[in-house]
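Lab notes, practical 5.
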Amino acid sequence: MPNDQSLTKEKSLEIIQQMINQAKSNITDNGLGWLLWGTMIFLASLLTWFFVYTDADNLFLGWNIFGIITIVLLSYEFFKPKKKKVRTYVDDLLRLVDIGFTICLFTVIFSINVAVNPNAGFGFFLMIFAFQMLLKGGAVKSRSLMIGAAVNWAGAIAMFINKDFKYDMLIMATAVLIGYIIPGLLLWLEYRKLNNGLEN
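Output from the prediction step:
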């Protein structure tokens, strides 16, 4: 009888450990979100640089298009049916990070339209991008995202120092390429490799 109790306790501890490991493995990132947002911001930045360079009438057409696409995608994400899954404390925390990031994003957009000059405003964009990357990179243990966060903070400082908005857009494009697109690509390749390994 004591042996049965001992085995039961050991089995219980094993099950708890398996649950912990499963919860850890659920915190993954397939990289597609970083690739999608990074590509849109990269293109909007280059398009704005081109418009400034050519003295176009609507300098922010690229960002207007980006804003419309963002609202559509966020609305879809909010209203689409959610799959039933066990949510962990970390899942809930990361969801709050996303909500806070989105609120900060639209607050910066509002500030650029009413109070803050675009030179500083886009620097604030890179600051909040970096903060999100740092938190998400820590959660999924991605060194590339953490490096991307440092690059985006450096880009924000460069924007605050630089006074020519045309070059701000090149700084933005470079920071997003290194901070969003490259880490997203690395995460996507790692995710595919992991899934292929599980299938085999």
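Observations recorded by the TA: The chain has a mean pLDDT of 80. Helices lie at 2-26, 32-53, 61-79, 89-114, 118-140, 143-161, 165-199.
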